[in-house]
Design a protein that fits this description.
seven-stranded mixed β-sheet; STM4215-like; single chain; elongated; alpha+beta
């Protein structure tokens, strides 16, 4: 399945996103980097859950035809946000909500419909919808060991719909 191309599309929307009040842009990852010092706000993109169902029939291409039916996959892509900030920042009340809003706005304004090609498999699919449904949840702030820094964590669940045409023979 082209979940790979969907995750890569979400990453391309978010990676390098300018964040209000931040000197460094958002860094987006699918596979997390080696743990270490966090110097800027991070986003981790996970495939999360998907619901796949036929959109047209037949599911596979019939003998003597070149194309099969379509199926629609609805993904709930998790975007985990992490930000470290000074505990005594005068803008502490706004810093993380502004990051969340920037990510939500980037996802909500993403282009669709859009043809996607998986860079590994070459499978082509169509992005039918992205960012029209976004659920946000963020945890209470945590104080880090030095008591001077705080860690903000948030989760945005973005609904993405994709159409995939069958290329297998029945």
């Amino acid at each position: 399945m082209p979940i790979n191309s969907v995750q890569l599309q979400v990453k391309s929307i978010l990676n390098g996103l300018a964040l209000p009040g931040q000197s460094l842009p958002l860094l987006a990852y699918i596979a997390p980097p080696v743990p270490g010092e966090v110097a800027q706000t991070l986003a981790f993109i996970w495939g999360a859950t998907a619901n796949e169902m036929p959109q047209t029939f037949s599911r596979a291409k019939a003998l003597g035809t070149t194309l099969g039916g379509f199926k629609k996959v609805t993904y709930n892509i998790d975007i985990w946000l992490y930000m470290i900030d000074q505990s005594d920042s005068i803008t502490a009340d706004s810093n993380f909500p502004l990051v969340i809003d920037a990510v939500r706005n980037a996802m909500a304004s993403a282009q669709y419909p859009l043809l996607l090609t998986d860079p590994t498999t070459g499978q082509v699919s169509q992005l039918l919808m992205i960012g029209e449904k976004i659920t946000t949840d963020y945890a209470p702030v945590r104080t880090l060991d030095d008591q001077q820094l705080v860690l903000y964590q948030g989760l945005l669940v973005v609904t993405v719909e994709e159409a995939i045409q069958s290329t297998t023979t029945s």
